[in-house]
Specification:
It contains 9 helices and no strands. It is mostly helical and 220 residues long.
Amino acid sequence: MKKVFFISACLLSLAAVSQSDKYIKAMEPKVAALDTTRSADALKDLANAFERIGDAEKTQWLPYYYAALANVDMGYALSGAATGGTGTPSQIDPIADKAEDLLNKAEALSKDNAEIYIVKKMLATMRMAADPQNRYMKYGPIASQALDTAKKISPDNPRVFLLEGEDKYFTPEQFGGNKEEAKKLFEEAVQKFDSFKPESNIAPHWGLSTTQYFLSQMKS
């Protein structure tokens, strides 16, 4: 009887390892693609692919996180928010709603996660950028609180410093923006990237190339 139980346990263990390998192999090329994908259509395809993995796995937060991030990146691409532009509410809000739903699924599987709060910050910024005059009072504090929470959870996370730098870079001086402070934050982000160790090859590691891009725009 003990032998039967031992064999059953081994088979279950092998099945779990096989499932884990399958999940990682499904995720790896898509995580890599997210680093270089810029077009809205391609980002939408990636978001849908990540969501399908999440629905199949059911217990993994990363697929929903990446699906949300791809949607946010898509919204930024459509609106020009990544370069200080704006979209329209009718253009941005459906994408933001989808990203928020995906983030909620990720958060249900991983509480107090700095990476999730970082994307929450990006999402609030995207909503605000669609109608800054009417939305700043609502979404400005939501974005700030999300970033503050991320920093408390993970004080050395380089993506926190990247987003802080972006805020200083794009905010007009009369409202607290400062290009020199932005440069210092981007430089600190680069240092954090040098020492930051992702938990795995599919864990969040994005942001270095964006940081380097901003620094390249600020060379005297």
